[in-house]
Amino acid sequence: MLTNLFPNISMDDLWVATYETFYMTILALIGTAIIGLILGLLLFLTSKEGIWQNKYINLIVAAFVNIFRAIPFIILILLLFPFTDFLVGTIRGPNAALPALIIGSAPFYGRLVEIALKEVDKGVVEAAKSMGAKTSTIITKVLIPESMPALVSGITVTAIALIGYTAMAGVIGAGGLGNYAYYFGFQRRDFDVVFLCTIIIVIIVFIFQFIGDFITNKMDKR
Amino acid sequence: MISIEGLSKIFSLNKTNITAVDDLTLNIKEGEIYGVIGYSGAGKSTFVRLLNRLEEPTAGKVIIDNQEITALNTKKLRLARQEIGMIFQHFNLLWSRTVEDNIAFPLEIAGVSKVNRSRRVQELINLVGLNGREKAYPSQLSGGQKQRVGIARALANNPKVLLCDEATSALDPETTNSILDLLVDINEKLGLTIILITHEMHVIRKICNQVAVMEQGEIVEQGQVLEVFTHPKKSVTKKFVEQIMKSDNQDDDISNIIKSYHNEGKVLRLHFLGETTNQALISELAKKFDIDLNILHGKITQTQAGGYGTLFVHVKGEIAEIQTAVDFVQGKTSVEVEVIENAD
Predict the structure, then answer these.
(1) Quick check: B86 and A142 CB within 8 A?
(2) How much of chain B, in percent, has pLDDT values that exceed 90?
(3) Residue B185: which region, alpha, beta or left (left: phi > 0; alpha: psi -120 to 50)?
(4) What are the beta bridge partners of residue B13?
(5) Which of A189, B64, B238, B241 has the least CB density, counted as fewest CB within 10 Å?
(6) Which domains does chain B have, with CATH numbers?
(7) How many CB atoms are closer than 10 A to CB B124?
């Protein structure tokens, strides 16, 4: 049936492309989560009235975040070619897409982390201080657990943006469903390939959204 | 136990300085329940935060249990804070943790081992009466229960001092009373010194031994609760005393009562203080003298140091006999008496 509806599809190629999209999304997501969390914490802690209040560090981090959020992703990939080549040793394939994916989405997630941390009740932080908690304890046992639902829904939103980015990266040679849709679908005028890739990407987005919502609801005891 | 010398806090906002706490000096004895009362903006919340340096003082010294809190470095301050419990108006519990995990939190901070932690948590749950709610999350608790968790958490590391920042202000009157009873209970059982910030005179009346009245960052009056209640000097203090002694339109009530009685006999105002509230004064007067007594209006209220209050009595009989009775009250008892001759 599938071959009737989509005559130009090669199941093997489709499978590899789907795998590559997952591969890029998940690895980039892990990197984004770590770097985004660090950026968000830095923004939050060095802000005015923050625990490490520091105008200069705050300014530098904010500038970094704002600049990388301002650059359109497709240009960012081109811009990072030398850096990627140096880091990964190639500018083609899923691995080569990772630096650009992470640098493109970590600042975005960093802002979401900052917003999530701002929502933590200041009274609870004060209570922890009154108990004699260290800053590291406040971060790991108060700020992060108390903002967890927002952190998870933030990473869900970021994951979906990342899936879009992987498709864009695919068009310029990173592999994955974007790559498959562009080279085997669009360029050969086999639009059934483009259409099927779209369906699969939409399904992947739904899966991420569903998992994200499920975890968020599960964790929220408020 | 706690001595505070010349404590000040000045906030700088847009180049204007706001003095929240102004050169405050205070001594608090061990085991006391010390109340600080004032209207919002009087600086009382800032004051209590200066004691454990949640706010850094601009000037002055805080000494708790022979340790100069204001001279400690960050690390030593953290250790000192573990011996100063604090509870808050909005409880400030971690919503992501269950009751027992919330209570265990200060123990985790102090590095108590897991086994000892769970034993201590169970003790505290018994102490504050939360048995059966160990696994509940704060969102499943009532306000009173949340504050009980707050109290258990504050007591976890066996502190010597408990700071209460408007601890009952978010609770209904009945729950307020049960929390206050718990605080008195803890104070007696553990010999804990409690500093309590409030804007409700009822709280001071019910549990405090000593009271300080704050206005514009300064303590305008302080002393034994009973003393401050019965002889309020400043207008703020008078207003607070009125909060518990008078209903809203009581002034009208009294003058109306006096008006309707003053053409026959006399209206007396009897002022009771401390232990005298326990005397059977009215029946004694009726037996000893040939007069009729009718209680018109009054209120006796109980404090930690005994009761106090005022009764308005209408006395009928011979003028001379009434005078002897008044002399008797003045001479032989410690009740203060005042003859209200005329209503207008």
Answers:
(1) no
(2) 57
(3) alpha
(4) B16
(5) A189
(6) 2-233 (3.40.50.300), 250-340 (3.30.70.260)
(7) 22
A chain contacts of residue B77, beta-carbon cutoff 8 Å: 132
Report how far residue B182's alpha carbon sits from residue B130's, in angstroms, rounded to the nearest whole number: 12
Q: Among partner residues B95, B109, B137, which is closest to A131 by beta-carbon distance?
A: B109
CA distance B178 to B142: 13
pLDDT digits (tens, 9 = 90+) for B61-74: 999 999 999 999 99
pLDDT at B103 over 50: yes
pLDDT score for B248: 47
Residue of A nearest to B48 (CA): A130
CA distance B37 to B60: 21
Which of A123, A133, A145 has the CB atom closest to B109's CB atom? A133
Tokens of B60: 């002055």
Structure-block tokens of residue B222: 């302080």
Dump pLDDT digits (tens) for A18-32: 999 999 999 999 999
Domain ranges (residues) in chain A: 2-219
In the predicted model, is pLDDT for residue A7 greater than 70? yes
State how far the Cα of A124 lies from the Cα of A146, in Å rounded to an integer.
Answer: 9
User: What φ, ψ does residue B131 adopt, rounded to 5°?
Assistant: -55, 135
Asked if A130 and B78 come within 8 Å (Cβ–Cβ), the reply is no
Dihedral pair phi/psi, residue B62, rounded to 5°: -125, 120
Q: Mark yes or no for CB contact A131/B93 under 8 Å.
A: no
How many Cβ atoms are within 10 Å of A83's Cβ, its own excluded? 13
Q: Is A133 an 8 Å CB contact of chain B?
A: yes
Torsion of CA A4, A9, A10, A15, to 10 degrees: -110
pLDDT bin (cut points 50, 70, 90) of residue B276 is low
Q: For residue A178, give the nearest of A87, A77, A86 by alpha carbon.
A: A77
| Facing residue for A132 by CB, picked from B79, B96, B153 | B79
Residues B81, A142: C-beta atoms closer than 8 Å: no
Mutate which of A131, A140, A220, A222 to disrupt the B interface (most B C-beta within 10 Å)? A131
**C-beta atoms of B80 and A222 within 8 A:** no
User: Cα–Cα distance between B288 and B315 in angstroms, integer?
Assistant: 14
Q: Does the interface ipTM go beyond 0.90?
A: no
Name the CATH architecture for the domain at A2-219.
Answer: Orthogonal Bundle (1.10)
Taking one residue from A and the other from B, the number of pairs with CB-CB distance under 8 angstroms is 67
Q: What are phi and psi of A117, to 5 degrees?
A: -70, -35
**What DSSP string runs through B200-218?**
-HHHHHHH-SEEEEEETTE
Chain B residues with CB-CB distance to A150 below 8 A: none
User: Of A123, A132, A146, which has the smallest distance from its Cβ to B109's Cβ?
Assistant: A132
3-state secondary structure at position B102: helix
Alpha-carbon gap: A215 to the closest alpha carbon of chain B (Å): 14
Averaged pLDDT score across all residues of chain B: 88
**Best CA proximity match to A163, nearest among A65, A45, A29, A55:** A29
